[in-house]
Every structure is written in structure tokens, then in C-alpha cells.
Amino acid sequence: MSTYRIAVIPGDGIGKEVVPASLEALEATAARFGLRLELTGFGFASAEYWQRHGTMLPDDWEATLRGFDAILFGAVGWPAVVPDHISLWGSLLRFRRTFDQYVNLRPCRLMPGVRSPLAGRAPGDIDFLVVRENTEGEYSSVGGRIFEGTERETVLQETVMTRVGVDRVLRYAYELADRRPKRHLTSATKSNGIAISMPYWDERVAAMGESFPGVRVDRFHIDALAAEFVLHPDRFDVVVASNLFGDILSDLGPACTGTLGIAPSANINPDRTAPSLFEPVHGSAPDIAGRGIANPIGQIWCASMMLEHLGHPAAAAHLLGAVEDVLALGPGEAPLTPDLHGTGTTAELGHAVAERV
Amino acid sequence: MSTYRIAVIPGDGIGKEVVPASLEALEATAARFGLRLELTGFGFASAEYWQRHGTMLPDDWEATLRGFDAILFGAVGWPAVVPDHISLWGSLLRFRRTFDQYVNLRPCRLMPGVRSPLAGRAPGDIDFLVVRENTEGEYSSVGGRIFEGTERETVLQETVMTRVGVDRVLRYAYELADRRPKRHLTSATKSNGIAISMPYWDERVAAMGESFPGVRVDRFHIDALAAEFVLHPDRFDVVVASNLFGDILSDLGPACTGTLGIAPSANINPDRTAPSLFEPVHGSAPDIAGRGIANPIGQIWCASMMLEHLGHPAAAAHLLGAVEDVLALGPGEAPLTPDLHGTGTTAELGHAVAERV
Ligand SMILES: CC(C)[C@H](C(=O)O)[C@@H](O)C(=O)O
Ligand SMILES: CC(C)[C@H](C(=O)O)[C@@H](O)C(=O)O
Fold it and tell me: pTM surpassing 0.90?
């Protein structure tokens, strides 16, 4: 029997509600597929921890977390207490870099029972993945200000792309596309306007393509691609993008499928030299936190992606199938939360999914 | 009688078709409102010119164009003949910087008779403007490569924001919002991830806001904002954004309203130290060029924005009204082009609008 050690970090706001609600479904799936999970909860990476310790993480966080096979993460951010740049750069963005989680993988998929804002689209029509570079690019934090406070004040911020950094995420995206039936990869660029870094990205996309002759590749400028997501979301299979472009596309995609509130994201270290981290796309949602009405589906979908990453695709698919079954029942027959027009609570919806497993 | 000197530059591809088709409606409007237009055509800023001269523009282009009150521009780009970075940086992007056209203004508006990809939206629901910084920011072209061709190859590209550059576009956006009934300004940022330049942008938005106490301001990270465009496009009035974010939003907005093929853009020098330039959002469209089926509405809408900029809002509104009337007739009664499900030609549709003027 395989045993996996999972670090569970609820974080802030609704993270503290959806994480517990997701565990029952996760454990039911593990039991059904003969997997042993050892779950260990941590209170750091939260505003509460920060209030008590003045830092987001304990000194030994890296050594502590390295011992785990994966991290199930809720949400971080509580601006009323900790400024965002401290909470995010002090936890989530730090995890991504330290643990070389260089792929951020986000599915965009029409789900049964979920209303898409796009006219005339039905489940099956839209089902693609965004592969986002997750450690460098536009998020470099290199730069600064000069002539501060004067009329000639100037601010510089560097985008940094490295051969290693670009190639490894491209390889992941090509390999992923190569395993899917459509074998279609779309690259997001803006080489006509961002004339140094993005042409480099394009070159590496072309170079890597030589190792994947079976993958059909196309390329859109990010402005046109954002428009395409709205106009022809059915045309995509795997979309690969830089850190910033991937950030935009992986919110826009789920917005188009109506799943922004329930979409998962996987921060993956494909080389498995450190744990990967699974967090829903929604944030800590201060506006609804503490009311027990947050939708736990994003967190459960994260648990499914985690099982896939741990090498158990059948278990992952089974759990996601349970989610789809419950969504398909609709608010009349399933305890869906208010965002899905139901009157269920976080715990009830989590339980309903667990029961279907 | 006011006289205006207009430089007319058709450029490439369908630019050469939609520009002529727009002039009849423009001239009819001018006649009706007692404006004298002197139109002067130019063949530069095109692949043809490049083939003949090896440059996109003649040596004296700047002095030549400075003598005009405005530039009506078609489209530039014909990658089969000239690489995009040469044609764009050699004309359009050069105009923007040289003539300090620091505002790129793009309306996002549901039009009668035009199908939006969003479910359940009707004309009147969506009507906002994107104000894009148009000369600096992410389009700096400062940077380079080091360790080329090796495993440690690294590429840097600088985002450059200046106090002058940021403040002047923000001032324009605030003033514009202040004149509109809703007095609502939305700023696009990404200060949680792009941690040097975007916090500076946020600071300047806040500082400029002190001079406009009547304007309600909010702020979205670009990922969330892209999603909001799809989910709640009715919530916007004026949206201000950096060069890159504005580029993305001003394609995404018209995609949401179904008007990507007919949307205009105005590259404005608000200080009137040089001519402003009006070009449709659609490009040169090599795939349909030369067939006489391109939609001239974007170009006509540009002419309307030009009249507005020249100080004739009534004439501008009248021309746009004629466009809306013709669109509202639908493909049964108006010679709409194939993109609008009609069988009309470029010339026929241009003529139909001119007749309504
Ligand atoms: C062609 C390209 C360089 C240009 C831009 O990004 O500015 C275009 O997309 C636009 O929006 O006018
Ligand atoms: C919170 C923010 C820094 C983060 C990002 O931009 O990476 C978030 O938007 C995400 O996509 O995970």
C-alpha cells in the first residue's frame, strides 16, 4: 500500500473552510483506491501566524515542507491585517521559487450544471489546460526607482527569461500536449510589441518543437489570444504562456467556462526534487469568509490534481467524476452553495461529494 | 468654415479597401456640419513602399505629417513581405512615440445588430472606454541577451515607467471619467506579482485621484480584470491601463461585445503638439484582403473619433448614429459584409452609411 505524506495548509479566509471540507472526499477516494495518506496540518502562511510571529513562515519551513510528497493549500491573503506583498511574497510566491514549482497548471473546462457566461456552449465544448511558467519572467522583482519624488522619477522593472527556465516549462507543455488526443499546443506571445523577451520565447517554442514532431503548434499574440478565449474557446487543447500571460489566461479561461470560483491550480515541480502545491484559483475571499458558504469544489478539484500528480490518475478521475455528478444534480437535488444558486453549506457540499466517491 | 488637413494612410491589406470606403461617409458628415476637410493620401507605411524603398517611411515623414491636423490610418503589416517587427516598429509604433500619442483610446460597446458572444447582453448594457498608455511601459525595447547560445543564456527586457508618462495618461483618464455621467474609473494593475513597476502605477493613480474627488476609482489586478470583462462588462465606465495591459484589455473588451472586427482606436496626443492617429483595431487581414469583403465600419468609426478629437462631437455622434442605424437594419435590409452575415461588399456598406448621414 502506497503511503503519501501530505502537508495541509489552510491559510486565510475561506481557505480555512474549504480545506477541511475537501478532506473527507480526498480520504474517501484514497480509501477506495488503496492509498494511504498521512495528513499534517500547518497554521503558517496565514494572517494569524503573521500577527503572532511577525513573519509568514517559521525559520525551518523549507526543511519541514521538503519532507512531504505534496502540499494541499487553501488561500493566502488578508489585506486588512497583512499587506498583500508581504503575505504573497512571504509564502505562495516563495514556495513556487524555492521548491522549483516551475509549472502552474490550470484546467479550463465547462462543467455540468455550471452556467458559462458565453452563449451557446455546452459541457464537452471547452476543455483545455493552461501551462504557466511559474518562477521567472515578468515576476522577477528586479529593478527599482531613480530620481524619486521628482518630475523625472523613473521606475524600471526587469523581465528575466533564462534558457533553462523557458525550456523546462516548454518541454512540460509539449510533453503534455503530446499525450493528449488533439496534440495541439498554443503559445502565448507578444513579440510584435515586447520586442526582446517575447521573440526569445518564440524562438525557444520553435526550437523545442523539433523534438515533438507530432504536436501541432500555433502562436497568438496575447491580445488576440485573450479575444480568442472568448470567441473560440473550443479551439484550444494546451496553452503555454509566460508567468504574467499565464496568470491572465488562467483567470480568463475559467471565467469563460463559468468556473472561476471552483477552478483548481497545480504548482508543479515536474522533476520531483521538492513537493508540488495544489491551491484553488479563488483567493481567501474576505467578503464571504466565516459564513460557511464558500464553495469547496475548487479545493476538491485540487485534491484530484494532487492524486494525479502522485501517480494515481484513476483515483483522480474518480474524484473529479464525483464532483461532476454532484454538480450535474443541480441545486434542487444537491446541497450546492449559493454561488451555484443553492442553499448548501461548505461542509454539506463537501460531504455530498465524499458520499458519491 | 473650419478647415482640417487630414493625412490618409491606407497601409496594407484591407487597409487599402476600408480606408477609401470610409471616406464617403466622412465627407458626407463634414458637408452636413460645415467642416472643410483637405484629404491627402500617402502610400508609405506599407509593404509595397518597403519593397520599393527598403524602408517603411520616407526621410521627411515626420516633417510631412506634422503639418496635418490628424491622420486616418488603415492597417500596417504584411508578414509575407516585411517582418512584423520592421513594419510595426518602422511605422505605427514610431508614430505613437514621435508624435507623443500617449493615449490609446478604445471604445467597448455593444452595437445594435451585432452578436455578442456573451449570453443575455443587449445594446446599452455595455459601453465603456479603455484608456491605454501608448508610449512607454512594457514596450520599452530596452534590454538584451547575454551568454547567447549557451545553457545559461539569459534575456532581460525592461519595463520603463516615468512620472511624466504615467501621470499624463492618468490625468487624461480621470478627466474623461469626470466628464461622463457615471464618473467611474477602473485602474488595471498587477502590483501583487509585478512588484516594482505596478505598485508605482497604483501610487500615481491614488495621487492623481486627489485632484478628481468626484471620480470613483477602483482597482483590479489584470487577471481578475480580464475575468470581470467577461463576467460583468456592464460594471465599467473608463478603464485605464499600462501599455501592455491596455493592449490586452482593448482587444478583450471588443471581443466581449462582438465588435473586434469593427472597433476603432484613437492614438491621441491630447496636448495637440502633433497630429493624432485613428486606426481600426482589426489589422491588415491578409486572409481576406483583395476580395472586397472587408468590413469598413471600424474605419468609419475611426473617422467619427477623429471628428470628436477635432472638436466636433455633434458631427462625430451623427456619423456613429448612421453606423448604428445601418447595423440595426441587419443583413436583410442593409448590405452588411459577410462577417455580419450579409452579402454586401466593402464599398456597398460604406456607401450605405454615407447615405444615412
Ligand atoms: C501590432 C501591435 C504592436 C499593436 C500593439 O500591441 O500596440 C496592436 O496590437 C495594437 O493594439 O495596436
Ligand atoms: C496572488 C498573485 C500573486 C498570484 C499570481 O499572480 O501568481 C495569483 O494571481 C495566482 O494566479 O496564483
Answer: yes
